[in-house]
Write a structure and sequence with these properties.
With about 70 residues, this protein is mainly beta. It contains 1 helix and 6 strands, in the order αββββββ.
């Protein structure tokens, strides 16, 4: 299995949790939307997975971020 081989070599998905604050080291804000249920600058949705190779970022996770219009 290709995924298993990558994991054994040290490739892993970047952790993304809805409702947690965006971490610019691992997440890239791709879209914004306002949702009153969450505070500003938290992740609302993961749009594309990001990956790490050991401690190096290969690709950041693309996420939708909670942000008011005009800010």
């Amino acid at each position: 299995n290709f995924k298993q081989v990558l994991e054994e070599e040290g490739v892993k998905k970047v952790a993304v949790e809805v409702g947690k604050e965006i971490d610019p080291r691992y997440h890239q804000a791709f879209q914004t939307e306002w949702n009153e249920e969450y505070p500003e600058n938290v992740v609302l949705q993961e749009l594309q997975s990001g990956y790490m190779y050991k401690e190096r970022l290969l690709r950041p996770a693309l996420v939708k971020v909670n942000k008011k219009e005009g800010k």
